[in-house]
Design brief:
The protein has about 300 residues and is mainly α. It has 15 helices and no strands. The protein has a single domain, classed as Orthogonal Bundle (MetI-like fold), CATH 1.10.3720.10. Helices cover about 70% and strands about 0% of the residues. InterPro entries: BP-dependent_transpt_permease, MetI-like, MetI-like_sf, OppC_N.
Length: about 300
């Protein structure tokens, strides 16, 4: 382990990271947000899932520093309250955790499905490749939001709104994951087409290794660099998709706040003076996605020497 860490510390990736101020700032912000979201049961002033924390008399309470705020309730209501009387800071922390779980889970589904299809299509070729890639083209012709709205509406109709609210997180993970896998499949297929012509693959065939072993043990590890770059971007895209669905009313229910559902809940009060219900969650979502995208750009530049500015 010390030797492996030493090689990593001396790698081109770490050398580039230490020289990139934007990447270091983005990673620092992202780590703070990640720790804050997953540690929310211990650091949040209240629990928005606890019915006892709901106080309609405190609904739309302004932030503590504004006129009409509740400074005597600190640390609760430091950012005000939402339309249900929940502490907005606590609700944002719990909502960010939901958004991150959906984003990471959806990317995991996309990666597993897309890598498997891309690896199979690229290595086997012929009719298998044509069939799988045409399936990917058909999938790409549909908007992610359109597919998600259609599947979500079908689930609500078949099983009822109550069942959807109880299973909203895994449903959204599956919906977003199934809608975005072609990005991985096409990237992995292109890498496999280049790798399978190399000498080490020919040597593996000559010694009689089975196809699945060649694909998983020899070709797949050499196609993971672009997959890692795509994953950073796709996490942000999945979170944006969840936020868009929640804003349209097809995502997380009001009882399970996410950043998207918080923006939706406060949108109707935006022009009536209660701007904080939408502005604060929206700003947090922008900062979170921006930090992920900046890290993704850094990884893309470092892992592709032709794009790396320092070369």
């Amino acid at each position: 382990m010390p030797a492996a860490w030493g090689r990593f510390a001396d790698s081109h990736l770490m050398y580039s990271f230490r020289r990139d101020t934007v990447a270091k700032a983005s990673l620092g912000i992202l780590l703070v947000l990640l720790v804050s979201s997953f540690a929310c049961p211990w650091i949040a002033p209240t629990n928005p899932y606890d019915p006892a924390s709901l106080d309609l008399m405190m609904a739309q309470t302004p932030p503590a520093w504004m006129e009409g705020g509740a400074p005597d309730q600190l640390p609760a209501f430091v950012l005000g309250a939402d339309d249900q009387g929940r502490d907005l800071l606590s609700t944002m922390l719990y909502g960010m955790r939901v958004s991150l779980v959906i984003g990471l889970g959806a990317v995991l589904v996309q990666a597993v499905l897309g890598i498997a299809i891309g690896l199979t299509a690229g290595y086997l070729g012929n009719r298998v490749e044509i069939l799988l890639m045409r399936l990917a083209d058909v999938q790409l012709s549909f908007s992610t939001l359109l597919v998600a709205i259609f599947i979500g509406a079908m689930f609500r109709t078949a099983f009822g709104v109550a069942s959807y609210e109880r299973l909203a997180v895994p449903i959204l993970i599956c919906i977003i994951g199934l809608a975005e896998w072609p990005q991985y499949a096409r990237t992995v297929r292109a890498s496999v087409l280049a790798e399978k012509k190399k000498e080490y693959v020919e040597a593996a065939r000559v010694v009689g290794l089975p196809t699945w072993r060649i694909m998983l043990r020899h070709i797949l590890p050499n196609t993971l660099s672009p997959v890692l770059v795509i994953s950073t971007v796709q996490v942000a895209n999945a979170m944006m998709t969840e936020a868009g669905l929640s804003f349209l009313g097809f995502g997380m229910p009001v009882t399970q706040p996410s950043l998207g559902s918080l923006i939706n809940a406060g949108f109707e009060y935006l022009l009536s003076g209660s701007w904080w219900i939408t502005i604060f969650p929206g700003s947090l979502l922008v900062v979170l996605i921006l930090s992920i995208n900046l890290l993704g750009d850094f990884c893309r530049d470092v892992m592709n020497p032709r794009l790396y500015k320092g070369m």
